[in-house]
Amino acid sequence: MSAIGRRMNDLKSLMYVRNGPGAAILPPTVTKIHLEFAHKWDGGHYGPRKFWQKNLPRLKYHNPAVPMIVNRTKDQTAAATLSIYMKTTTSSSSSSSSSAAATTTTPTTTTTPSPPSPEAAEAAPDAATSEATTAAPGKPVAVADPWLNIASSTQGLSRAPPPSDGETVVTINMKFVSSDDILRQFVAKTGARELEPSEEDRAEMTRLEELEKQAEADRAVQKAFRDKIKAEKKMLERARQEANALKGD
């Protein structure tokens, strides 16, 4: 393939992933996306597969910071589920109330601390070490985010993790549902803002369509030329065989 052909294919791929169904900006409340469906299209998994192939790349292109995990299973009878992880409004309201309470506290009188004695300075490191090694009873322990150790799987190994604190999960049943309906439900549940192609992209797509039509015409001309050469070669070979047969007689 020539350099021009490769460049045109790259432009087509970029235009394809940037524009079309699925090109949308997710709101900040959407934190993660998880898809689970079977490998093959039968058993109600045709719509989920098409959504994964056609729509999900555009969502990821416009929302690169949102983790999107795909878990494909071998079980064609399994469920096909789209899980949307979203921040809950309670966490934001509690944080705002706590910040408001912090701003309304009464000021306290500050005093200049006296320098510590040598005995207290020597005992300070030991006290800090004992506090660091001894956990306070009832104190919550930080749990690692399961999304840090999860990746897309083709063996059904990446099931949807439970939501983190301050998150809720909204699910969409994708089984026996078309990709267009899946996308409509996704936009409705997330409040995503669908994007229209820009004027530059529209002009570029029009130019690429014209180039593709011209390429099809050029391919037809080249095929006709090759077919003509093949036919002439066959005629020459037939004439050569007939001449050799006459010489033998």
TrEMBL record:
Q: Which is one Pfam family of this protein?
A: L51_S25_CI-B8
Q: Which PANTHER family match?
A: MITOCHONDRIAL RIBOSOMAL PROTEIN S25, SMALL RIBOSOMAL SUBUNIT PROTEIN MS25
Q: Where is the Ribosomal protein/NADH dehydrogenase domain?
A: 40-193
| Gene Ontology CC annotation, any one | ribosome
Q: Coiled-coil stretches, from where to where?
A: 198-249
Q: Which GO terms describe its molecular function?
A: structural constituent of ribosome
Which keywords annotate this record?
Answer: Coiled coil, Mitochondrion, Ribonucleoprotein, Ribosomal protein
This protein's name: Ribosomal protein/NADH dehydrogenase domain-containing protein
Has UniProt tagged this entry with the keyword Cell division?
no
Keyword Ribonucleoprotein tagged: yes
Q: Where is the composition biased (Low complexity)?
A: 90-112, 119-137
Q: Where is this region: Disordered?
A: 90-141
- The domain of life for this entry's organism is Eukaryota
Q: Which InterPro entries match?
A: Ribosomal_mL43/mS25/NADH_DH, Ribosomal_mS25/mL61, Thioredoxin-like_sf
Compartment(s): Mitochondrion
